[in-house]
Design brief:
Elements: E1 2-8, H1 14-27, E2 35-40, H2 48-57, E3 62-67, H3 74-88, E4 95-98, H4 106-119, E5 127-132, H5 138-155, E6 159-164, H6 172-181, E7 186-191, H7 198-208, E8 215-218, H8 226-240
Parallel strand pairs: 1-2, 1-3, 3-4, 5-6, 5-7, 7-8
Helix pairs in contact: 1-8, 2-3, 4-5
Length: 249
Amino acid sequence: MKAVLYICHGTRVKEGAKQAADFIKKTMPLVDAPIQEICYLELSQPSIEEGLRACIERGATDIIAIPFLLLTAGHAKEDIPTELSHAAKQFPDAVIRYGEPLGVHEQIIDVLIDRMKEAATIQSDATVLLVGRGSSDPATKEDFSRILHLFKEKTKLTDVYIGYMAACEPAFEDALGQVAASNPKQLFIVPYLLFTGVLTKSMDRAIKKLELDGDVHLCRHLGYTPVIGHILAERVEEAAQSEPVCFPL
């Protein structure tokens, strides 16, 4: 019997973990699988091993593990596969397939723009700071270069910058300081994050310290939208057609 195991990052902020679970529950009707479970890589429960066990106990024999992450970086390439490999030893008869994160997608850029419009009417000379989680994996900066290109192409804005919350340069607070030094008339801080958490709280604290004459808008995280829900369902369908994983990866 086929199952899907959605693997979220996890967070110390309970609301962030709840938002992830709620998002997936709204997406489940789009996915053709009788068994669907949610688990977390770290900081939240259930764990990946507990998620696999829940699938097996419900009768699963063919499990599609989907990293519910925005980009392909260290968590998707290393951390989740390592945990899956460890957990799979407990269930040697199960067939496990491993999918891809959401990835860089034009429609996700459209959601970013919607988040800006929720905050304020976008002026033609607006300044934007896109904020990513960050990773030591070089692929993260490559992905953000593509995101920046798509974003500028769609908005026609020219003053668009990137800052990272961890492991990448420029660091968010450094980028924020540099952008603020130009005293923009309208500044949007746009988190490229799925859910609220410690990182969004850190952003909020840093922004409150700013002393600017212009308007500053901290936009909402991406959150649930049917658009991203359909992309997630597509990743499940793609993984269902892939070859089973041979552990260790």
